[in-house]
Amino acid sequence: xxxxxxxxxxxxxxxxxxxxxxxxxxxxxxxxxxxxxxxxxxxxxxxxxxxxxxxxxxxxxxxxxxxxxxxxxxxxxxxxxxxxxxxxxxxxxxxxxxxxxxxxxxxxxxxxxxxxxxxxxxxxxxxxxxxxxxxxxxxxxxxxxxxxxxxxxxxxxxxxxxxxxxxxxxxxxxxxxxxxxxxxxxxxxxxxxxxxxxxxxxxxxxxxxxxxxxxxxxxxxxxxxxxxxxxxxxxxxxxxxxxxxxxxxxxxxxxxxxxxxxxxxxxxxxxxxxxxxxxxxxxxxxxxxxxxxxxxxxxxxxxxxxxxxxxxxxxxxxxxxxxxxxxxxxxxxxxxxxxxxxxxxxxxxxxxxxxxxxxxxxxxxxxxxxxxxxxxxxxxxxxxxxxxxxxxxxxxxxxxxxxxxxxxxxxxxxxxxxxxxxxxxxxxxxxxxxxxxxxxxxxxxxxxxxxxxxxxxxxxxxxxxxxxxxx
Length: 471
Description:
Blueprint: H1 2-18, H2 32-41, H3 46-57, H4 60-64, E1 79-80, H5 95-111, E2 115-116, H6 121-142, H7 151-158, H8 167-177, H9 189-192, H10 195-217, H11 222-244, E3 251-253, E4 256-257, E5 267-269, H12 271-279, E6 288-292, E7 302-305, E8 317-321, H13 324-336, E9 341-345, E10 351-352, E11 357-358, H14 365-369, H15 377-382, E12 390-399, E13 405-411, E14 423-427, H16 428-434, E15 435-441, H17 447-453, E16 458-460
Parallel strand pairs: 6-8, 7-16, 11-14
Antiparallel strand pairs: 1-12, 2-4, 3-5, 6-15, 7-8, 9-12, 9-15, 10-11, 12-13, 13-14
Helix pairs in contact: 6-10, 6-11, 10-11
């Protein structure tokens, strides 16, 4: 009898689902008349068949290439910082750390008259992942009185861990854990290929997050919850140690010059004393400001991104919103003094990957499809069509006779064989459209802007399309 009823109910449900009465009845669906009109608007021509045949067998980018823009790239830059070795982040989202380290080692070379050093990304990434794990677990505890579908609870559980970040993360982590040379803690497979271990730790953290919520609901004491969180972090620590190696507490090291020759005495360091050797008398924390170009928001105002940090006891991402011409002025002042900068972009837009060239005229998608793509920068951001995706190190600018920027150059972290010997060249038009963040030393920032940066920040939510981590 039960089986018979099940079949009858199933049949009724299938009939109901296929019945027109359950289709969308309000005006807004695609009707037969609308579909007919859609087909008639675009009159088919012999050229359409040729286009289909071409697109069916080739990539869109290959067919949209603007041949008129394929000439030689001018690689002369009137203002250029000294070159340094190009790094490779491999299959990881650590561009923020690679770009940050490029700035640190460049400043070190400038301060010490060309001493060179390769810093361990593996070392700082270990602490980054442990700190982000704690940030998640403590965030879950802090929000444990909210329902599981609360916006903030969802924020934590959606992405309990990632390998992206910003320069603020470099600063907080270096200030807390220091630095070590690459040869002391070299890259491992999981450091170069973060996907699997990060995915496993995400699963474990979500499991732990649910347990902590249950403990809060059961009225467990703060001491009991903290003790349990410590045990959870011990498991994460072990997973990191097995895949990244355990961070050293002491080591010996001697510095080399640009020719690879050892030119200093070998000394014993710990990570904090070694970090002090790298950044000198002026600690990296507090020595810079971050500026952004977000045309959706008021300029010359400071904004702070809620919950956007690498460590629970660290600093939220804070920035001064500026027009692009002001950002360019800060960048030029820094480059003229030989200082490289952390910067970030929507790097995939109009990028000629073979030539390492960013130009809005590289591809003509509009002519290919017989339409236009007309959104401006603000509209692209607000509709999730564009946002900062990748950090690179700004190294050079070419200025015209009036001192205005024409071209820019960045050191990338995709290996020395990519693009222009590991670098990308970008037109000023592309720079204005797809550049978003710049970190600049305070010494190059006018007093008025420094004062604006110190105003009480406007808090913004981390879900905003512009505040995804650089990867």
